[in-house]
Write a structure and sequence with these properties.
52% helix; Rossmann fold; homodimer; 13 helices; 13% strand; 293 residues; three-stranded mixed sheet
Chain lengths: 293, 293
């Protein structure tokens, strides 16, 4: 029987992801904080639910895509949360990037009612969400993963089962350490290049194809050179992820000197008013440190 | 007329590079500190010179590939150095990675005798040197660059003219900032992953294809997982380059928090006896910081 699906959280990412499920003809119930964001999907045949609990009542699988740990906690275990409709067989899939520690607490609470929580954070941005080319990193019971995998394939191309509850979130945090530290290196290298008189485009071309190459260099360096600081991924969100990384590092007694440093430098970026710009705005902070302006 | 070529410094890199010039039938004179390293090329028809000056006397273009700034200074401006044979039209191409500041001083000294110094550091490792697929970053007079470009094409595939004297070295330093900071992120991310119970190979596969991807992740992370710390690029040499980077940064008043941090962490790697291992040995330092062992 076709699975009935609910989607909670229709921001830039969630809106596209829910839309892809609806296009694949899954019966869809939706809920989001500001109902205005639901209007397009409602016009295409989705059903509205007034609360996360009511959305979950109508569904076999509940997808969640909100911002931070407290947002997911409100949706899952808060008043009128999904947990009020939890029952054996229900599967909850959380696409938000949040704390793996809080994830395991919520998974345990749902498990008492026979409901499985899968953590399934994504990467690939709004373009990946729209085109169904996200990377999805999944933690939790593997039997539940197998049941929802066909639905995940509507949203992403690289679907990885990472291990027990929280492992998807932890893998996403690994991703974010790599992304943020590599970006820090790119920003620093370009500031060094400019300060020492090099032509930046020629420099990127000279070094980009070898051992210095990275996605961050190929994709963000040209934006830095062009002075384009519009967000692909926002400084504020990178900071949220770095806070989770440093919290998990502290709990697990893992010393992260580079991630700590990039968190501090992004704090300077926020202080300078770059919080809602893309992470490539770190370039401007390092440029100021080098007192170019 | 076919250019007569001299090559000074026949280490792992220089040996392969000189060999490629000889294979292309350029008349080759060689000199290196320990003559034993020259025997193979001498057997293939190269001429031996007892000093850099004598090598330069026999050549239209003198290539140098030694280790550090003082080594190049000895070869170029030291006793029996290339400068003793400097004359109008002679071109000296330095493939070593050294200080762009010292480079400009030597270029000025040679220019007084009508000889041009091109700084032309390479990247791509011993494999690139053997196969002629190096990246070569060139600074100095563009007319001299044009004259030697056909010879450089015997040794490398990505040949970039970077600008005036020192610009090749500065571009190589940009490369090394990128390489070392990205590697630091890879090491830290993998230690975080292992400490938090993830399967490392699965984690690399999950994150490697997207915004977290880099040459360092693709090439060094599997070595870290396999416990293979043999040198592709040695910690000691990375440290030499970072010292030059931080010296140039100080001279140019450029603040480099990330490069400073990676230099300090590599100092810990050297203290732990990993100086002659590959740069992926930084993984072991961060693992110790996380007290896994």
């Amino acid at each position: 029987m076709e699975k009935r699906v609910a989607f909670i959280g229709l921001g830039i990412m969630g809106g596209h992801m829910a839309s892809r499920l609806l296009e694949a003809d899954y019966p869809l119930t939706i809920h989001t904080r500001s109902r205005a964001k639901a209007s397009k999907l409602l016009g295409q045949g989705a059903e509205w639910a007034d609360t996360p609990a009511k959305a979950a009542e109508q569904a076999d699988v509940v997808f969640i895509c909100v911002t931070d740990t407290p947002d997911v906690e409100k949706v899952v275990t808060g008043e009128h949360g999904v947990i009020a409709a939890a029952r054996p067989g229900l599967i909850v899939v959380d696409h938000s990037t949040i704390s793996p520690i809080a994830t395991r607490v919520m998974a345990a609470a749902l498990a008492e009612k026979g409901t499985t929580l899968l953590d399934a954070p994504v990467s690939g941005g709004d373009v990946g969400a729209r085109n169904g080319t996200l990377s999805i990193m999944v933690g939790g019971e593997s039997s539940a993963f197998e049941q929802v995998e066909p639905l995940l394939r509507r949203m992403g191309t690289t679907i990885t089962y990472c291990g027990k509850s929280g492992a998807g979130q932890t893998t996403k945090l690994v991703n974010q350490i790599l992304v943020s530290v590599t970006n820090m290196g790119v920003c620093e290298a370009l500031v060094f290049a400019r300060k020492n008189g090099l032509d930046l485009e020629r420099t990127i071309a000279a070094v980009g194809g070898g051992a210095a190459g990275s996605w961050q260099l190929a994709n963000l360096a040209p934006k830095m050179v062009a002075g384009d600081f519009r967000p692909g991924f926002m400084v504020n969100l990178q900071q949220k992820d770095l806070r989770i990384i440093l919290q998990v590092a502290e709990e697990s007694k893992t010393s992260l000197p580079a991630a700590s440093l990039v968190h501090q430098l992004f704090t300077a970026a926020e202080a300078a008013g770059h919080g809602k710009e893309g992470t490539q705005a770190l370039f401007k902070v390092l440029e100021k440190l080098a007192s170019i302006h």
